[in-house]
Write a structure and sequence with these properties.
The protein has two domains: 152 residues, Rossmann fold (3-Layer(aba) Sandwich), CATH 3.40.50.10860; 231 residues, Rossmann fold (3-Layer(aba) Sandwich). The protein is globular. Helices cover 47% and strands 17% of the residues. The relative contact order is 0.13.
Length: 426
């Protein structure tokens, strides 16, 4: 099986073959840029030494991959996980470049991580590791250089420690620059975070859903059936906003399994029940497995949990007319091919779940201005960006007669290539 970075490079090569004919007379420049985009601009790596609570010293492998900054500062999360690897952060930073480009926000791609199981650290040890990570990156992060954010197992609290360490390091050097809060996003609201951030990814997906339903020719929202796999932050907010707008969410699931309600799930009640009972409500519902949810005969399937849940063994059983990817990488490349042949419409993750990074961009803008927006202002600003990104993807899909994933990647890669040609930087 290919490693994630090899997958990212293979995707780029496939996109480049389709885009190359749009660069007549500039083929040499185009080819040079594509070659350069196969690898990050730079990868920082080191072992972080932490004094543990028992007085011993432990070292943790840390990475930061900075893929491309032609369109703006590097942007991307930091994850604390035992499976973090060099190839993973390189791939994720590449995909972040495309995600930022597809929504038109002025960032490039970055990604970082530490090889650690944070559950095995005390709060004090976790804080030390977070501050050490900022020290390791030094001048390689900052509001106009690289803007990290939370990712797997990192939180607003961890971002608070990191931004505090960053500010202290600036003070030690006697540096005064723009608001240091703008060096990190995903912060608590009390420390310069943005209203609307927690729901932004799920809500952005529903904004895409609205435009997709128009393209599919549905007349009434209440006739559109939706199944959502995953009832964490992203899945819940997607299901809630879809339900609030009149769509019929007939199935939801969490890691323990799912429920099917033909007349539609009461999403708010389901969340309340899950908080109290740590499971989904079974009353008036048919219990189903996560696998069964994927194979339901619904109009739109929303995988919002884990990667690779739709693969070559179950792709032929998918009955949904369209899939909106809210998790990162829920379809394998083999499943992509099978579903494309079946005519299943796909809105890929780098478009459909980009509401989160878009509101992170809004947080950065607010920090730089020192002027904060209301919840309603944030939502109002998010909608046109999501709708425009979808419209541009659909136009590329129609023009080149390709599937949704390829159309989205072509849109994103073209934007990065065009800027690099303008800069003459290849």
């Amino acid at each position: 099986m290919k490693n994630p970075h090899a997958n990212a490079v293979a995707q780029l090569e496939k996109v480049a073959q389709l885009l190359r004919k749009e660069y007549q007379g500039q083929e040499k420049s185009f080819d040079a840029i594509i070659d350069r985009l196969k690898e990050p601009d730079v990868v920082h790596q080191d072992k972080l030494a932490i004094t543990m609570d028992d007085g011993s010293t432990q070292k943790f492998q840390a990475y930061r991959s900075q893929h491309n900054n032609a369109r703006g500062p590097y942007k991307g999360g930091i994850r604390f996980h035992p499976n973090v690897s060099l190839d993973e952060v390189k791939a994720l930073s590449t995909w972040m470049t495309w995600k930022c480009a597809v929504t038109g926000i002025p960032y490039g791609g970055g990604k970082g991580g530490v090889v650690v199981d944070p559950k095995k650290l005390s709060k004090k040890e976790l804080e030390k590791l977070s501050r050490a990570y900022v020290d390791f990156l030094g001048d390689h992060i900052g509001a106009w250089v690289d803007v990290p954010a939370p990712d797997v197992n990192t939180t607003g609290e961890i971002m608070s420690w990191m931004v505090d360490q960053y500010q202290k390091n600036l003070s030690k050097k006697g540096l005064i620059q723009e608001n240091p809060l703008a060096a990190f996003t995903g912060k608590p609201i009390a420390l310069g975070g943005s209203e609307g951030r927690s729901e932004a990814t799920g809500l952005g997906g529903v904004m895409v859903l609205e435009k997709l339903v128009e393209k599919m020719g549905f007349q009434n929202k209440n006739q559109v059936t939706i199944a959502v796999q995953g009832f964490g932050n992203v899945g819940y907010w997607f299901a809630k906003h879809a339900s609030d707008r009149g769509y019929k969410v007939v199935a939801i699931s969490d890691s323990k399994g799912g429920i099917f309600v033909e007349k539609g799930v009461n999403v708010k009640q389901a969340l309340q029940y899950k908080k109290e009972q740590d499971s989904l409500p079974k009353l008036d519902a048919k219990t189903i497995s996560n696998e069964e949810l994927l194979e339901l005969d619904v109009d739109i399937l929303v995988p919002a949990a884990l990667e690779n849940v739709i693969h070559q063994d179950n792709a032929t059983k998918i009955k949904a007319k369209a899939i909106i990817e809210m998790a990162n990488g829920p379809l394998t490349p083999e499943a992509d091919e099978i579903l494309a042949k079946k005519g299943t419409i796909l809105v890929p993750d780098i478009l459909s779940n980009s509401g989160g990074v878009t509101v992170s961009y809004f947080e950065w803008v607010q920090n730089l201005q020192g002027y904060y927006w209301s919840h309603q202002e944030v939502i109002t600003k998010l909608q046109p960006l999501m709708e425009t990104a979808f419209a541009q993807m659909w136009a590329m899909k129609d023009k080149h007669k390709v599937d949704g994933r390829m159309a989205t990647y072509m849109t994103a890669v073209k934007r990065v290539v065009d800027v690099m040609i303008l800069r003459g930087d290849f």
